[in-house]
C-alpha cells in the first residue's frame, strides 16, 4: 500500500539518501527531501534541515508518516541531537523510522549505536540498516577516492583484513523496502556485498577497471589517526574511532557476507567490479 503522507528522507543529497529518495519517487511514494540547503529534488518536496538547528525540525516532520535517518557526519555522539529529534517525530505522528548505521557499530555501541538501541522503544515500526563500507568510497567524494584521483593510491591500517563492501544502490533498495513494505522489519539488517576483499585486491580491481595504477599503502593505526586529523581536518575523537575501525577490519571483524540484500530485495547484491565499472562510466 502506497502511503499518502510523505516519507521524510534526511540527507537526501547524500550517497544513500539521494538514491533512497529517487527510488521512493520512482515507485510512487511521496518524498520530503531534507538537506541543509533545502536542495530541490525533482518530484520531491524540498525542506531545509539541520541536525544542529532544532528550528528546522518541525517543518521537516509535520505531516510525515515515515522517516529515513542519516546521522550527522563526523559526530562521535549523534544521539545527543538524534534522540530529541526522534521523540519529537513520534509526538508529531511519525509511525516508522529506518536508521542508517554501520556493520561496525553494534546496538548500544559507540556513535550511532545508542540511537540504534533506543529506536525500538520509540517506534513500533522500525529498522536499522547496518551496511558494510560503501563501494562508492572509491569512486565518490570519500577520502579514498580523492587520494586515488590525486596520487593513484589510498591508505588504510587494515592489513590483510577483508571487507565485503556493499553498493550504495543496494543499501537504498533495502531502505525502500524497509520504509514501504506493509510489515516493517523491526530488526537490524547487516548489509554486505557478495564477497569479502582485502584492500590489496581492491587496488588490483581498481587498476584493471580504470586502466591506471592504483596502490594500497599500509599504515599503522596511529598513522591513520594522524593522517585523518592533520591532513583531512577530522576531529580527533572521530578520527580515533575511524582508525580503530581499520584495526577491527585487520583482525577480521568485517570478513563476512550476509543474505540481507537478497532477502529484502529478491535479488543478489552487486559485486565490487561491476559497481566500479558503472560508477566510472557515469563519471566520464
Question: Overview of this structure, please?
Answer:
This protein has a domain at 7-132 and 166-191 and 256-269: NAD(P)-binding Rossmann-like Domain (Rossmann fold, 3-Layer(aba) Sandwich), CATH 3.40.50. Helices cover 42% and strands 16% of the residues. The chain has helices spanning 15-26, 57-61, 79-91, 113-122, 143-151, 168-180, 199-210, 221-231, 236-250, 260-265, 272-283; strands spanning 7-10, 31-35, 45-48, 66-69, 96-100, 125-131, 153-156, 162-163, 188-191, 197-198, 215-218. The strands form 3 sheets. Strands 3-2-1-4-5-6-9 form a 7-stranded parallel beta sheet, with helices on both faces. Strands 7-11 form a two-stranded parallel ribbon. It has a two-stranded antiparallel sheet with strand order 8-10. α3 (79-91) links the parallel β4 (66-69) and β5. It is globular. The N and C termini lie far apart (39 Å). Pfam families: NAD_binding_10 (PF13460). InterPro entries: Ergot_Alk_Oxidoreductase (IPR051604), NAD(P)-bd_dom (IPR016040), NAD(P)-bd_dom_sf (IPR036291).
Amino acid at each position: 500500500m502506497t502511503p499518502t503522507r510523505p516519507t521524510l528522507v534526511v540527507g537526501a543529497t547524500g550517497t544513500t539518501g539521494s538514491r533512497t529518495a529517487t527510488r521512493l519517487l520512482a515507485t510512487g511514494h511521496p518524498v520530503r527531501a531534507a538537506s541543509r540547503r533545502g536542495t530541490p529534488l525533482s518530484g520531491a518536496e524540498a525542506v531545509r534541515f539541520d541536525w544542529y538547528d532544532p528550528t528546522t525540525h518541525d517543518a521537516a516532520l509535520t505531516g510525515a508518516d515515515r522517516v529515513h535517518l542519516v546521522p550527522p557526519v563526523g559526530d562521535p555522539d549523534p544521539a545527543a541531537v538524534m534522540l530529541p529529534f526522534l521523540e519529537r517525530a513520534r509526538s508529531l505522528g511519525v509511525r516508522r523510522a529506518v536508521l542508517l548505521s554501520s556493520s561496525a557499530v553494534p546496538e548500544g555501541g559507540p556513535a550511532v549505536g545508542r540511537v540504534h538501541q533506543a529506536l525500538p522503544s520509540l517506534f513500533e515500526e522500525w529498522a536499522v540498516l547496518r551496511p558494510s563500507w560503501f563501494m562508492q568510497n572509491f569512486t565518490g567524494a570519500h577520502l579514498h577516492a580523492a587520494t586515488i584521483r590525486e596520487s593513484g593510491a589510498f591508505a588504510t591500517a587494515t592489513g590483510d583484513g577483508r571487507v565485503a563492501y556493499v553498493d550504495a544502490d543496494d543499501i537504498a533498495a533495502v531502505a525502500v523496502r524497509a520504509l514501504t513494505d506493509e510489515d516493517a522489519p523491526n530488526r537490524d539488517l547487516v548489509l554486505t556485498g557478495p564477497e569479502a576483499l582485502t584492500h590489496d585486491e581492491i587496488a588490483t580491481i581498481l587498476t584493471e577497471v580504470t586502466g591506471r595504477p592504483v596502490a594500497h599503502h599500509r599504515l599503522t593505526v596511529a598513522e591513520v589517526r594522524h593522517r585523518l586529523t592533520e591532513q583531512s581536518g577530522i576531529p580527533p575523537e572521530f578520527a580515533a574511532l575511524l582508525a580503530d575501525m581499520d584495526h577491527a577490519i585487520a583482525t577480521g571483524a568485517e570478513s563476512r557476507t550476509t543474505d540481507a540484500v537478497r532477502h529484502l530485495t529478491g535479488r543478489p547484491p552487486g559485486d565490487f567490479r561491476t559497481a566500479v565499472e558503472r560508477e566510472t562510466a557515469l563519471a566520464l
